[in-house]
Design brief:
The chain has 208 residues and is an alpha+beta fold. It has two domains: 131 residues, Alpha-Beta Plaits (2-Layer Sandwich); 67 residues, 2-Layer Sandwich (Double Stranded RNA Binding Domain), CATH 3.30.160. 38% of the residues lie in helices and 30% in strands. The strands form two sheets. A seven-stranded mixed β-sheet has the order 2-3-1-5-4-9-10, with helices on both faces. Strands 6-7-8 form a three-stranded antiparallel β-sheet. A hairpin with a 5-residue loop joins strand 7 and strand 8. The protein is globular and about 55 Å long.
Length: 208
């Protein structure tokens, strides 16, 4: 399984807007290249279609195709555009970051337990009569997630794996020492000076 994490870091709303535009660009690229895209989770910002972060799952019959696409979005990316939220703002450079993860599902399964449960909320008769929702728990840490967005238990299980993997990665970052955090921040600042992709204008046109 290939995952792509997009993050605005601690950036302002314009960086969150860039995440939303990046998702649309990735959706279009996936359709063109025959890669199936699933949005696993997004963290909304205070404005519509603006996100603090997004976790995307990419799959293809030839897994290498999904991996190559995700890798092309890994690193710091620059969006050069006048802010639509602050028209008089002098700053026009907005940065976001992409990180690709390749998950060994068999290995991940060995550290997890899965429980089927009844889905809740809207969905009609199908939701009310099947145990399609899945709760995944990481046995070592006790971290768990519940997924019921898909109609099949199998699909929800795969999304639960991806979401739980992200939670574990976030926990690792939170446990970093202050020295490690400084090194990570310095790396992020260095990456911002050498973006892997550059986009310009309101239409998010890629120029590099």
């Amino acid at each position: 399984m290939t995952l792509l994490q997009l993050s605005s870091g601690q950036g302002p709303i314009e960086c969150c807007q860039a995440i939303g535009l990046a998702i649309k660009a990735i959706e279009k690229e996936c359709r063109t290249k025959g890669v199936e895209l699933t949005i696993v989770e997004t963290v909304l910002a205070e404005h519509k279609e603006c996100f603090k972060s997004a976790l995307l799952k990419l799959e293809s019959e030839e897994n290498e195709r999904a991996k190559v696409l995700a890798l092309s979005w890994q690193g710091a990316m620059l969006w050069h555009c006048q802010s639509s939220f602050r028209p008089k703002h002098k700053r026009k450079n907005w940065f976001i970051n992409g990180q690709m993860f390749e998950i060994n599902e068999t290995r991940l399964d060995n550290g997890m337990t899965f429980q089927a449960c009844r889905a809740s909320g809207a969905g009609g008769q199908h939701v009310n009569t099947t145990d399609s929702a899945v709760r995944a728990t990481h046995t070592e840490t006790g971290i768990s997630v519940r997924v019921e967005s898909e109609r099949s238990q199998h699909a929800n299980k795969r999304l639960a794996k991806a979401l739980l993997f992200q939670k574990l990665e976030m926990m690792k970052q939170e446990q970093m020492t202050s020295q490690e955090r400084v090194r990570w921040q310095q790396h992020w600042e260095l990456e911002r000076g050498n973006p892997v992709k550059i986009f310009r204008g309101e239409n998010f046109v890629q120029v590099i």
